[in-house]
Design a protein that fits this description.
Shape: elongated
Helix content: over 70%
Largest sheet: none
Structural class: mainly alpha
Number of helices: 36
C-alpha cells in the first residue's frame, strides 16, 4: 500500500464520485475485484454502481440491480445489458429471473426485440403476449421457430391485410404454415360476411391440385414430398391417408364454389375407385345384396334395376336403357339435401354396376364391329382402319363424358360423327350412329345442367358486385374486385360457348344487363377518386416532361460539372422507380425517355471522367519524376503541390480512379513516410521533453504543499533553474509551473506573515505586562512575575529591551526617578502617536497640535535637504510600531487615550497599505 493510500485510502473509496468511477472502471487492483459486488450494490453514486456492474459483466448482478435499484440510470443500463444477453444465449437456471425482469419491462421497443430475438421460447411467448400490433405479430409468425408459439400467434391475428402479407412471405418458405395462414384467412372471410372468398378459393385450388396429382398417381406416400419411394402395401396406406387428409380439409372449407367442388369431387372419385377393390365378376353380380333398408327407396329401386340388367346378357337396347337409368339416378341424387351413409353406399354400388355394364356393352360392340369388318373385308384395308379410328374416337368420347369434361366430350363426339359420316354406306354401323346420338344427348343434358348451374353462379356474381362497399373500400380495391368478377363472368361464358357454336355469349341478356348495371354503380362510386388520380398522374407527367427538358439541356451542355450531372442522373433513376405515379399508357414512353436521358448523362460523364483521368495520368508521370529529386524538401513540396492539383482534376470512374490513385501514391508515399518518421521522432523528443517538464511541475506542486516552505526554498530555486534550462516549454506546462511557484510563494508569504503576527503578539503581551507592572508599583504592589509571559525568541531585539526595562523596574528603589523615566517614555509615545496621526490623516488633539506642526516641518526639511531617503508607508508603519512597543510603560492617566489614538491611526494605515 502506497503512502497516499495510507492517508486517503484506496481510490475506489474516495469521496469524489468521479474519482471512484474512474478507479472502478480502470483499476487492475485485485482488491477491487473482491469489492465489485459490494460497490455495485451499495455505492451512493449511480455512475459508480454502473461502472462496477460493467466490470462484473454478470447477468445475475444486472438482474439484481434491475429489481432492487430505483435509479433510472441504473435501470436503463441494466435493460440495455439484459436485452443483449437475453437475445444472445438461453437463460437456463436464470429463466424465472428473466421472466420477472420482462414483466417489469415497459418500453415497447425492448419488448419487440425480446419477442423477435430472445433465445428462450418462454421469453418470446411472454413478450408476444404483451404486444397487440397485428403487423409485428405477423412478422414474428414468419420468423418464429417454435410451432406452438406460431399457432398462438396465428390465433391472435385478425387483420386480413397482415395475414395476406405474411401468406405471400410463407408461400415458399414454410408451406405448412402458409396453409394454416390461408385457413385462418378463410375463417375471417367467412365470419366477416363481406362476400370475399379469395383465401377459401386459393385453399380450394391447392386441395384440387393435390387431389388431381394423387389421381394421376404422382404420389410418393409423403404428402407431396417426393423424397421417399414407399411401395406395396405401405404406399397404398399412405395414399389412403392422403385421401382422407384431403377430404377432411375440403370438408373444413366454407361453401366452396360449385365448379371447384365438381373438380375436387371428380378427382377424389378417381382416387377412391383406385383405392377400392375391383368390382366383382358378372356371376358375383347375380348374387347382389339387398338394398339397405335405411336408404332412399328410389335409389334402391334403380340399384336393383341395374343389378337386374347386369344379370341378363347385353342386347341392342342395353346401352340406351343404361344411359336413361344413369341420367335418372343423377337427377334424383341431386334432389337429395343430405345423403345418408346408406345412400352413399348405394351410389357406389350403382356406379360399379354401371361400369361393369358399360364394359360389357363396349366389348359386345367391338366384337360386332370386327365381325362386320370381316364380312365386308376387301383387298384394301382402308375401311377397317376407318372403323378402328371411329372406335377409338367413340371410346375417347365416352371417357370424356364419364369424366364430366364438356369441352373434350364435345370435340370427341364431333370427331366421331365426322369419322362415322366418312364411312361408306355398307361399312357404317347403326350401332355407332346410335352411340353417337346417345352421347350427343347426354352431352346436351350435361350442357343444360352446366348452363343452369352457371346461371346460379352468375346470380351470385351479381350479388357480390352489390356487396362491394365502395364507400369504405379503397377505389383500387373496388376496381380490382370488379375486374376479378368480370373475369369470372367471362370464364363462365368460355365454359359454355364451345367451338362451332353460333352464339358468342351464354348468359341471358337480362342477367347480363343487371350485371353491367351493378358494375357501373360500384364503379361510379370510385370514379371521383380515379378521376382525381388521373389528374394527379397527368400533372406528374407534365412535371416529368419539364424535368426531361431541363435534364436534356444540362446533359447537352459540355460545361456542366460532374456533380450536377450525377444529381440529374440520380433524379432520373428515382423517376424510373416512381413510374406508377404516371398514367399507365404513358409509362412505357416515359421509361424510354428516362433511359435515353440516363444514357446521355452517362456519355457526358464518361467524357468528363476521361478528361479527369488523362489529367491524373499526367500528374502520375510528374510524381514518378520525384524519385530522382535529390533535395527531399523540394520533392515533398512538389508532392504536396501535385496532391492539390489531383484534387482539382476532379473525379473519374471509381474503379479507374482508385487504380490511378494507387499509381499516384506509389512514388510519393515513401517521401511522406520519411517525413512522417521525422515528425514522429520529433514528437517523441517533444513528448519526452514534456514528460520531464511534467515531472518538474509535479515536484514543484509537491514542494508548494509542504508545511514548512522556508525549508525547501533551495529545492524550489533548483527546480526553477532546471525548468528555465528547457527551451520553449509548452504554454500549458509553463502556466502549470508558474501556478505552482505562485502557490509556493504564497505559502512562504503566509508563513512569514504568521511569524510576524506571532512576534507582534508576543511584543504586545510584553508591553501590556510592563504597563501592568508599573501600575502595581504605583499601587505599592510587587511587579507581575515574568513566568506568565510567552517564550520570547532570542533574536528579538525589541523584546530584550522590554525585558531589560522590566528587570530595571523590578529592581528599582527610587520610585520618583522611575516615574520621571516613565514620563519621558510617555512623551516618546505621544510623539509616536502624533506621527501616526500625521501619516494617517487624523486630527491631533489641541494640546498636540504644536508637536504635530514641528514634526511636519522637520519631516519636510529632511526631504528638501536630502538628508534621508524617502521610506515607503509599510516601512514607516513598521518602524512606528516598533517605537511604540519600545516606549512602554506609559503614564497611568495617559496610557488609555494614547493607546486608543494609536490603534485608530494604525487601523487607517493598515487599510492604506493593503490598498
Amino acid at each position: 500500500m502506497s503512502f497516499k493510500e495510507r492517508l486517503f485510502g484506496p481510490p475506489w473509496e474516495s469521496k469524489d464520485a468521479d474519482a471512484r468511477a474512474r478507479s472502478v472502471a480502470g483499476s487492475t487492483d485485485p482488491r477491487l475485484s473482491e469489492r465489485l459486488s459490494e460497490i455495485a450494490a451499495a455505492d451512493p453514486d449511480a455512475g459508480v454502481r454502473i461502472a462496477a456492474l460493467k466490470r462484473l459483466a454478470a447477468e445475475s448482478a444486472w438482474l439484481k440491480a434491475r429489481s432492487d435499484d430505483t435509479d433510472p440510470q441504473i435501470r436503463a443500463a441494466a435493460d440495455h445489458f439484459l436485452l443483449r444477453s437475453v437475445c444472445e444465449q438461453p437463460g437456463g437456471d436464470r429463466l424465472q429471473s428473466r421472466l420477472a425482469w420482462l414483466a417489469a419491462l415497459e418500453t415497447s421497443d425492448a419488448l419487440r426485440r425480446v419477442a423477435a430475438h430472445a433465445a428462450d421460447a418462454e421469453m418470446r411467448a411472454a413478450a408476444l403476449g404483451r404486444i397487440g400490433s397485428q403487423g409485428f405479430l405477423g412478422d414474428c409468425l414468419v420468423s418464429e421457430p417454435d410451432e406452438a408459439i406460431a399457432e398462438q400467434l396465428l390465433a391472435r391475428l385478425e387483420q386480413v391485410s397482415t395475414l395476406k402479407r405474411i401468406a405471400d412471405k410463407l408461400r415458399k418458405k414454410h408451406k405448412g404454415r402458409h396453409q394454416a395462414v390461408m385457413r385462418r384467412l378463410a375463417e375471417l372471410e367467412s365470419e366477416s360476411g363481406s362476400g370475399a372468398h379469395e383465401a377459401r378459393d386459393e385453399l380450394a385450388a391447392q386441395l384440387i391440385a393435390q387431389a388431381e396429382k394423387l389421381a394421376r398417381g404422382d404420389f410418393s406416400g409423403n404428402s407431396g414430398d417426393s423424397r421417399g419411394d414407399n411401395r406395396g402395401d405401405n404406399r397404398g396406406d399412405n395414399r389412403k391417408a392422403e385421401f382422407e387428409r384431403l377430404a377432411e380439409r375440403w370438408a373444413a372449407l366454407a361453401s366452396p364454389e360449385p365448379h371447384l367442388a365438381r373438380r375436387f369431387d371428380g378427382a377424389m372419385r378417381i382416387v377412391k375407385s383406385a383405392l377400392e377393390p375391383r368390382p366383382a365378376r358378372p356371376q358375383a353380380v347375380e348374387a347382389a345384396p339387398e338394398a339397405p333398408e335405411t336408404g332412399d327407396a328410389e335409389l334402391a329401386r334403380m340399384v336393383e334395376q341395374a343389378q337386374a340388367m347386369a344379370a341378363r346378357p347385353a342386347g341392342n337396347k342395353t346401352a340406351d336403357t343404361l344411359n336413361k337409368l344413369i341420367s335418372a339416378f343423377d337427377r334424383h341424387w341431386n334432389t337429395l339435401r343430405k345423403p345418408a351413409p346408406a345412400d352413399e353406399a348405394m351410389r357406389e354400388r350403382f356406379r360399379a354396376l354401371c361400369a361393369e355394364l358399360q364394359a360389357r356393352e363396349q366389348a359386345r360392340q367391338t366384337s360386332s364391329v370386327k365381325a362386320a369388318a370381316s364380312e365386308h373385308e376387301r383387298p384394301n384395308s382402308g375401311p377397317a382402319e376407318a372403323v378402328a379410328e371411329l372406335e377409338r374416337a367413340l371410346e375417347q368420347a365416352e371417357q370424356a363424358l364419364s369424366a364430366g369434361d364438356i369441352g373434350q366430350s364435345h370435340e370427341a363426339i364431333r370427331k366421331a360423327r365426322s369419322l362415322n359420316d366418312k364411312l361408306p354406306g355398307r361399312g357404317r354401323s347403326g350401332e355407332s350412329s346410335g352411340r353417337i346420338a346417345r352421347m350427343a344427348g347426354k352431352l346436351k343434358e350435361m350442357r343444360d345442367w352446366q348452363h343452369w348451374s352457371n346461371n346460379k353462379l352468375r346470380e351470385r356474381l351479381i350479388e357480390r358486385v352489390g356487396e362491394i362497399d365502395s364507400e369504405n373500400l379503397h377505389p383500387d380495391a373496388v376496381t380490382e374486385r370488379l375486374k376479378e368478377l368480370r373475369q369470372r363472368w367471362k370464364e363462365l361464358d368460355e365454359q359454355e360457348v364451345l367451338p362451332g357454336d353460333k352464339r358468342q355469349f351464354a348468359a341471358p341478356q337480362g342477367q347480363w344487363r343487371r350485371f353491367q348495371r351493378a358494375c357501373k354503380e360500384a364503379f361510379d362510386a370510385a370514379r371521383p377518386y380515379l378521376e382525381k388520380r388521373s389528374e394527379v398522374r397527368e400533372q406528374s407527367h407534365q412535371e416529368l416532361q419539364a424535368f426531361l427538358d431541363d435534364a436534356r439541356a444540362v446533359a447537352g451542355d459540355p460545361d456542366t460539372p460532374n456533380d450536377k450531372l450525377i444529381r440529374y442522373q440520380r433524379a432520373a433513376r428515382e423517376a424510373i422507380r416512381n413510374l406508377d405515379t404516371l398514367p399507365p399508357k404513358l409509362r412505357g414512353k416515359a421509361a424510354g425517355a428516362l433511359r435515353e436521358l440516363m444514357d446521355s448523362i452517362s456519355a457526358s460523364l464518361d467524357r468528363h471522367f476521361e478528361a479527369a483521368e488523362n489529367e491524373k495520368r499526367k500528374l502520375i508521370a510528374e510524381a514518378r519524376k520525384l524519385v530522382h529529386e535529390k533535395d527531399r524538401a523540394v520533392a515533398i513540396d512538389r508532392a504536396k503541390a501535385l496532391q492539390a492539383e489531383w484534387k482539382k482534376a476532379g473525379r473519374g470512374r471509381r474503379k479507374v480512379d482508385d487504380q490511378l490513385w494507387n499509381e499516384f501514391r506509389e512514388p510519393i508515399d515513401p517521401l511522406f513516410e520519411d517525413l512522417k518518421k521525422e515528425r514522429d521522432e520529433r514528437k517523441q523528443v517533444e513528448h519526452e521533453h514534456a514528460e520531464a517538464l511534467k515531472q518538474i511541475c509535479v515536484r514543484a506542486e509537491e514542494l508548494a504543499a509542504v508545511d514548512d516552505p522556508e525549508s525547501v526554498a533551495g529545492q524550489v530555486s533548483g527546480l526553477e533553474d532546471e525548468f528555465n534550462r528547457h527551451n520553449a516549454p509548452p504554454p500549458a506546462l509553463r502556466k502549470r509551473f508558474e501556478r505552482a511557484l505562485a502557490r509556493y510563494r504564497d505559502q512562504v508569504q503566509s508563513a512569514r506573515e504568521a511569524q510576524a503576527q506571532a512576534k507582534r503578539a508576543h511584543l504586545a503581551a510584553l508591553s501590556a505586562h510592563l504597563q501592568d507592572s508599573w501600575k502595581n508599583i504605583l499601587a505599592g504592589k510587587a511587579p507581575l512575575p515574568t513566568s506568565d509571559l510567552p517564550e520570547i525568541p532570542e533574536d528579538d531585539e525589541v523584546a530584550r529591551r522590554l525585558l531589560a526595562r522590566l528587570e530595571q523596574m523590578t529592581q528599582a528603589t527610587d520610585v520618583e526617578a522611575l516615574g520621571r523615566e516613565i514620563d519621558a517614555q510617555t512623551d516618546k509615545a505621544r510623539q509616536i502617536v502624533v506621527e501616526m496621526e500625521c501619516l494617517s490623516g487624523l486630527e491631533s488633539p489641541e494640546e498636540d497640535r504644536q508637536r504635530r506642526m514641528d514634526y511636519q516641518i522637520s519631516r519636510l526639511s529632511n526631504r528638501l535637504g536630502g538628508g534621508a531617503a524617502k521610506a515607503d508607508l509599510d516601512s514607516e508603519r513598521a518602524e512606528l510600531q516598533r517605537r511604540w512597543l519600545e516606549s512602554f510603560p506609559h503614564h497611568i492617566g495617559q496610557s488609555g487615550s494614547l493607546k486608543k489614538r494609536f490603534e485608530e491611526a494604525d487601523k487607517i494605515l493598515k487599510q492604506m497599505t493593503a490598498g
